[in-house]
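Shipment paperwork, digital attachment
Item: protein structure file
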Amino acid sequence: MTPPPPHLNPLPPGGRGPGEGDKARLVREMFTRIARRYDLMNRLMTFGRHQAWRRVAARLADAQPGGLALDVATGTGDLALALLGQTHMRHVVAMDFSDGMLEVGREKLQRKEAGRRVSLLVADALLLPFPDKTFACVTSAFLLRNLADLTQGLAEMRRVTQAGGKVVALEITQPTFPGWSGLFAWYFKSLVPWLGGIVARDREAYTYLPRSVERFLSPRELTRLMEEVGLRNVSCRRLGLGTVTVHTGTA
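Attachment content:
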């Protein structure tokens, strides 16, 4: 596995460590518990569409050939792999604060022989350990709902993005189509926790999932917040019958 470029300073394992907020600690522990079943649950919950959504997000990153990308909260590395496949990035730094998720990602990268172009490291999305304007693009998938401080997380993503580079965030959202919104709510709040209990043996984690979506900002509110932290030309694209959105802004 290629180490991070020398000017990048990864944090030690364990994320924020001393002083870490309760939400951050609980979220990190939860994702570590479900790491080995995370990919399978994503396939089942989305009927296999989650990879297509990541490819869309990667293409929207629109990075310049030969650049350096950052994938925040990479999990098991699927969006980092999509960036390699959909752009001409030289290298992707893929970070997460869950050691368990990164271990699964490391095994996946080795199987796909992609380790030379992806560096995995433990780091916190609220305290990105990189200089200003380091990356040609910064991406995240299903991260924002889990941040203890959403404004700070978005500001950090903007800070480490080069001028003119893209910040891209893929998130689950509540659909608004009549009829479909009610069906999705039943599926997400009833069937997904049951499935999580059977497949991942962690009903609690997959009860947290729909609750986190229910409490999260609407696409319009998230667009406004991205603009408030200084991103320009912010746009939003709905996918999956409105169940996910991709927000894109320019640093």
